[in-house]
Amino acid sequence: MTLLQPWILLTLPLALAPLVLYWLRRRWTERRTWAAMDILLQAYKTVEPKQKQSDVVQLILQTALILLAVVLVAQPVFYVPQQTEVSNSQTDAPAELHSVYLVVDDASTNASAYFKAGFEQIGKDVRVDASTPDAANPTSVQNADVLILHGVRRVPQWLAKVVENRGTDRRPVWIFAPHCLNDSSRQLLQDVLPPLAGEPSKTARPYETLNPRSLLWQTPDFEPLAGKPVPFPSLINSVYESTDDWSAAFSDSSTILSRNGVWVFSSAVDGTQSAWSMSDLWVPLLDRVVTVSISAPSTSSTIEYKPGTTWLSRVLAIAGLVILVTLFWRFGRKPSRYSQRERRWGWICFIAAGAILCVMAIQATFKPVVWVKPSILFLVDDSQSMNLPQQPGDALTRNQAMVEWVDKNTDALEKLLQNYRLFESAFSSPDAVTEITNATDWKSALEKRSADAPTSDPKGALAHGVETLSSQIDRQTLSAEFILSDGAAVGQPATDSEQILDNQRQSGVNPRVFALALGQDKPIPNAAIENVKLDSVLFAGHENELEFQLRADGLQGKKVSIELIQRIERRFPKPKVVGSMEIKIPSPHFVADLSFKVVPPEPGEYEYKLQIVNRDDEFIQADNAVTRQAEAEERQIRVLLVSGSPNWEFRYLRNLLARTGIVKLSVVLQNASKEYVKEDSCALESFPTSAESLNEFDALIFINPVLDWLSAQQRDALTDFLRINGQNAVTDSGRKAVICFWNAQTDFASVAALDGRWLPFDVSAASAPSGKIRNAAVITPLGQTTAWLQMSSKDKFDWSTLPPLGTVVSVKQLKANVQTLLTTADDASPLLTVHDVGNVRVATVLTDSLWRWRQGAGEAIYNQFQINLVRAMVKPSADSRVEKPVEDAAVPEEWRNTSADSVALSELCKPTGGFAFRPADSQSILDAVRPDAPRVRVVRPPVAIWNQFWLLALLLAVLLFDWSRLYLKKE
Amino acid sequence: MDQTLYNSTLAQLSGLKLRSRRVVEGLLVGEHRGAGQGLAVEFAQLRPYSPGDELRRVDWKVYARTDKLHVRQYEEDVDLCVYILLDASAGMGYKGSASPLSKFEYAQILSGVNAYLALRQNDSACWAASGKDVDVSAPFRGLNQWTTFLDSLDETSVTNLLPNGNASISAALSHVLTRWQRKGLVLVFSDFFDAPELVASALKRLRAMGHDCRVYQVLDRDELTFPFNNRTCFVDLESDARGLDAEPLQIKAAYLEALERHLSAIRSICSALEIKYRLAPTDVSIEQILRGGGTQ
After folding, report:
1. What is the ipTM, given to two decimal places?
2. Across residues B282-295, what is the average pLDDT?
3. Which residue among A32, A38, A51 sits closest to B247, beta carbon to beta carbon?
4. Domain positions in chain B
5. Can you give the pTM of this predicted structure?
6. Which among B235, B237, B254 has CB closest to A43?
């Protein structure tokens, strides 16, 4: 037996309290002169022997009482020599731990990792195999040194048989969190583990209830602080510090049952739980369990482990009671040290101490059983969606349907009330649980209740409601939960129902969950326009893109008409339908990205309203129209076209840009004669010599320029332009575009010397083309999703129909942030790339022979491509085109997903053995819950206090108060 | 002693007189029956005429009937001599927490009041105090000497009330009886924490000398009830060497029992010697004691 426990060592000095108090009493004697001394001495002679004897007996009893209480609560660990039959048979246990087979559910896959880590930390080289119950290998399960069932909910029969066999052979089986088993599996395990079922086996010894606290403290080398020996007071502090939740970890629920090698751990004693896994306690506990349950005969055959509630603790508790009764008896005798007035307080103290000791003794020795009514929790959805019709077109709302269902089941509820306690909690206030005492009253209350909670979450309500209820009643009594809801969970983060149920099981609650699935079973017919994107500044007289998303539910096979209404802000505005389309909805839940071309006829403030033509069968019409405002400017794209030579690309592009009205073109042709400058109205005399001048252009287009031709000032201007706009900081000049047409003769080194960032590749990665020079263009997947590359408004454009190009610069590898939109057909070398350098959007065309597309295919495609390219490059960034959500407050968030989610409710119920049903189903509440269910037998008292140290402190406080009052009182 | 204590008490004692139940010896004509025959109005007896008797005392009616000369004799009324013996041992200095006066102070007041009663009816009074020594005063006569009586009594409390292991009321009685030869009324004020047999012996001698005697056993309420709870070290007032460390509640019953035995013994002695006994707790008013309200 070892008494080396911190609590014992700390409380042992308390046993000296009566002696100290007695000594103080003797020291603090009051001095009084007296005349009748002869008479007093004569009287004293008659009582002196009795008084001395009484003092000694009283001190012994008081000290013994404290010692017994300390020992009873602290539960020392006792070793007795191995002499029993059971101990001898333990020599059959394997001497070493080599293999562990872990049976886990899918949800508990972390368990094997925790166990592996735990075995590693205790220095055991153990092979850990893990599988689900169905996939377990029977041979491995049979032969493993330790079989661990961790959190499994369903135990196959063959596995239960293995557990039984291993128990008979006294080979270790560890079962974690047995309360999470479903009913059939629990019954199966109870059949093979008779003492658990309350039927003491004739052959097997009953289960020992172990306390992990004792298990740890009797470990000689338990040193939580980095392997250094720790004095006991510090040990307590260190344990507190190293355990996140001491009370939860060492509460009475954290018990371990052990019998014949079968160890049943409650959920709290589980290294896979966060509190434990983060603490230092799990590993020593695992070590101790391994040592005790799998010890070799040479190391453990001489001892038997007998901690916790044993015959000795019962003897101690009863002895404590006997002592207290003796003290009572002595207290009641006369003459007493107490005056009549003091005896009243004395009785109070004695009765309090006696009650405490009685509770301790009863709980420790007799294991009282409490019979209570089981409880059922109804979780009532009171969100706004409950105001929707039960079915489309119904006058009956979901809330009314729920009341109607309650009304229909009033008799059943009254029957249930005879054997159950019924509780109700609303979704909007899951922290408040009220008891239902009368079914009719409850129905009336539901009728009066308004469903106005903005959001709802059945899973969240389930988690909160059960938690709240558990704080009011014993969690072991919760028999079933009913969710009365349409299942619509909007505005809440998705809650993992498995996690909720796991949390419930781990906290000792394992009820079946049933759901009354209210609401319609089909989606509500509704169409909505969402995610409207329109540039805030439009080009007057030119096409601008208005993109939006159409969402349609429950309208499959029907057509939805969408109109675009343009309204200019002027004195007499006249709305005008400028676009319309009709979409046939193919599926119940349809989402499509659509767009309109917007052409503001003149500069000014415009309002564009996208609206769905209202339908009679649509439920929510408030989300049918979205309005956006934009300003149209009569502004042209300022383009500087710089070309090294008057090649075909330059000529066609120059003419195209000069003709189109949206571009204000300036041209710099290197080595051009003065006559050309005079003749070409767009031509500049020279390349701008300052960055400010260059900043006046929205786009710079370079067609294979010879940079060496630029003067030093012009080069500096270009470098500054790239440097200033190449920063991510927003500049006054706004977004810029640089479009480069390179060919095989380009000196990329000189380009990189200006600023290497505007090349989409490293100079070394580019090389002159080899082999075939007639290249066809192929659009990349990214290019296919790019709007401005959609060359045909109807069908998918076939790029292979375009004439082949000339030479294309061969590039092996692009930089990381470069997007490739077009490639060559032969070697997939990039043809058109786009990347951002700060505020500059750089488009690189790795050929100067796009003009060849004009041959055969006509100029339409060429023109469209080049204009789109210029416009796309100068288009404001996506950041400036904020996709504003619909801000129409008339549509509550809850209503946007109004369909009843009975599937989610079913998934929530199914793992618990429950089911979801609809009001129209014939199933009543009595199909789910048996009305004649017996009362729940709460094995553990609701509050297990018999081994709590605060109880010991209270007992000692009461006794010491009384004794100190006796000894130290002063008149 | 504060005169106001006397004034308030004396105001309540108007009409109270001090009487001896026995024949006393007096020098002057007084209110008390003397041992001889005198000139009082109370007829005593007839005796045969002797030569020299005054002819006016001859009862002529008897002579007419018997033809013999007889002289009428009347009882003698003499003054009373009140002897006050005050126990001035250290034990009498005890004063309980609930009592306004110590036992000695209480006995002093009782003595003073009795002296007043005596002096007021023209009797003489003298006192003796037994403490370290036995002080005996000269007789006082006349109400105008009452203040002197009190002053002399006060002096002895200052000089005499000291711890003295030999102070015993029995010894003091024996001592003063050699001085108080003339029969009178002896008032003894003491706690009588002496051995009962010594007390009995002294009182017997007093009675044998023909004194009328009254015993006042003055005790504090604490001594009668022993109301202590705390562990206490009791130190003897008359001897520092004696003490007892004990739990009062544990010995209370035994103490009260022993005290009752002692009081019973004192009462029995007084009863046997036809001495008037009165228990005088210090928290009972003087008037109540004198009017017979104390325990007899």
Report:
1. 0.79
2. 75
3. A51
4. 29-78, 79-290
5. 0.39
6. B254
